[in-house]
User: Fold this.
Amino acid sequence: MDLRMFYQKLHKLELEITDAHVVVVSEETPDGGKAGQKAEVSRFNAAKLILEGRSRLANAEEAAEYRKRIEQALQDAEQRAMSERVQLNVISDADLRALKSAGRPEKR
Assistant:
């Protein structure tokens, strides 16, 4: 393929994509590419993948489902990170004795 023609098609396809980042769905390729894998890519990369026949633009439903799944994975990761944080306070023996004696009622 003529490189000039390739980049003209690439530029035209890139201009047709309105969003800065779009979700693409992979197509099965002879070199082992799996069909149905979704990814969010830049407009340029989406145009290149589509032109090479490796992907297609995701429809609105597929894009919404993908973004929802990514958002849920992000929330899960944040939750795991929060749960892994262990707060530890180191106190001296004198402070420990003071805390223990403060909790006991005084004897009369």
